[in-house]
């Protein structure tokens, strides 16, 4: 913030140097929460625990908290034109990038930081770890897609030792359990996931895999069900049972065809059960998968065509 020390007193120079060391230099790679405060300021003391907790929670994301006492560092406070306290800024590469003064609760502060962090190239342990585990996650997903649940479980288990709270890793581990037929273990693991992690789309994908697996048991012979459907094409209950069995056998094309048949015949049957089951199948396969994209277009044509 202070560009030159020309004409400054020795005390002011000391303030500037301290500010460069404590705030500017860390902000070159980190996001600095800069809190202007004073001992006599009651609201400052109320805000401090919130700032400290959020900074600790976001340390892995590259966030640090720095404080400037306006009574001790008057020159720095004047350079920022501080009129009232507490005043809180987000600093990056030596410049204020956001006024955090309105964020007086943990939730609102985290929401603002989340928005800022998506827009800036912050150096963080979390990003470094993500870069390390991403290729391993891709390997696990590839093995899982090939039907080798046991090997996929081993891969995701090893990644979990590095990143135990990463939703993609938890999701892969749970879906590997499902692939191995260990449905109860998969359910138990999902039940233990913290609420904030459980909201992640990757966990929703794992939950869909567990739900689908709980609806059917893999069977080598779906002929009896097919015969029942052939005898009465409007027996949606039998067709749903057949679709579930085909999903368990990893015959997703045939399963999708039967679900689409129900949707075309009666999209509201059983409170839209066929559509919901189809959407679950999409989540399990992966919403970015080309097959899912094609089936979603097919569904849109039926619903809106």
What does this structure look like?
- There is one protein chain.
- The chain has 15 helices and four strands.
- The chain is of the alpha+beta class.
- Strand 3 (87-92) and strand 4 (95-99) form a beta hairpin.
- Helix 6 (149-162) packs antiparallel against helix 7 and helix 7 (167-179) runs antiparallel to helix 8.
- The longest helix is centred in the middle third of the chain and has 21 residues, at 125-145.
- The termini are far apart.
- 31% of the residues are buried.
Helix content: 55-70%
Strand content: 5-15%
Major sheet details? 4 strands, mixed
Structural class: alpha+beta
Topology order in helix (H) and strand (E) letters: HEHEHEEHHHHHHHHHHHH
Poorly predicted regions are none
**Mean pLDDT over all positions:** 90
Bulk shape: elongated
Work out the radius of gyration.
Answer: 28 Å
Topology:
Blueprint: H1 10-24, E1 31-37, H2 42-57, E2 63-69, H3 74-79, E3 87-92, E4 95-99, H4 106-117, H5 125-145, H6 149-162, H7 167-179, H8 183-191, H9 195-198, H10 201-215, H11 223-231, H12 236-248, H13 252-266, H14 273-285, H15 290-304
Parallel strand pairs: 1-2
Antiparallel strand pairs: 1-3, 3-4
Helix pairs in contact: 5-6, 5-7, 6-7, 7-8, 7-10, 8-10, 10-14, 11-12, 12-13, 13-14, 13-15
Features:
single chain; four-stranded mixed beta sheet; 305 residues; alpha+beta
Summed up:
The chain is an alpha+beta fold.
């Amino acid at each position: 913030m202070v560009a030159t020390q020309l004409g400054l007193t020795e005390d002011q120079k000391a303030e500037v140097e301290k500010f460069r060391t404590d705030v500017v230099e860390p902000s070159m790679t980190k996001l600095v929460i800069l809190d202007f405060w004073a001992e006599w300021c009651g609201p400052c003391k109320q805000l401090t625990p919130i700032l400290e907790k959020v900074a600790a929670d976001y340390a892995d994301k590259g966030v640090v908290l720095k404080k400037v006492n306006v009574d001790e560092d008057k020159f720095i406070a004047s350079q920022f034109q501080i009129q009232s306290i507490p005043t809180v800024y987000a600093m990056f590469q030596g410049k204020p990038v956001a006024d955090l003064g309105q964020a007086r609760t943990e939730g609102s502060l985290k929401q603002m930081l989340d928005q800022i962090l998506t827009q800036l190239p912050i150096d963080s342990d979390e990003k470094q770890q993500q870069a390390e585990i991403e290729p391993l996650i891709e390997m696990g997903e590839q093995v899982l897609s090939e039907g080798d649940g046991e090997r996929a479980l081993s891969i995701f288990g090893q990644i979990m030792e590095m990143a135990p709270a990463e939703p993609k890793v938890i999701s892969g581990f749970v879906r590997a359990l499902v692939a191995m037929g260990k449905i109860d273990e998969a359910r138990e693991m999902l039940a233990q996931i913290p609420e904030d992690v459980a909201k992640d789309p990757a966990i929703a994908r794992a939950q869909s895999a567990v739900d689908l697996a709980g609806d059917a048991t893999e069977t080598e012979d779906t002929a009896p069900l097919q015969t029942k459907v052939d005898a009465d094409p409007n027996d949606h209950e039998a067709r749903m049972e057949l679709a579930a069995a085909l999903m368990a056998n990893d015959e997703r094309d045939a399963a999708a065809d039967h679900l689409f048949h129900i949707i075309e015949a009666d999209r509201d049957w059983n409170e839209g059960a066929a559509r919901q089951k189809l959407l679950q199948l999409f989540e399990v396969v992966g919403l970015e998968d080309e097959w899912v994209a094609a089936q979603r277009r097919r569904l849109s044509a039926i619903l809106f065509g």
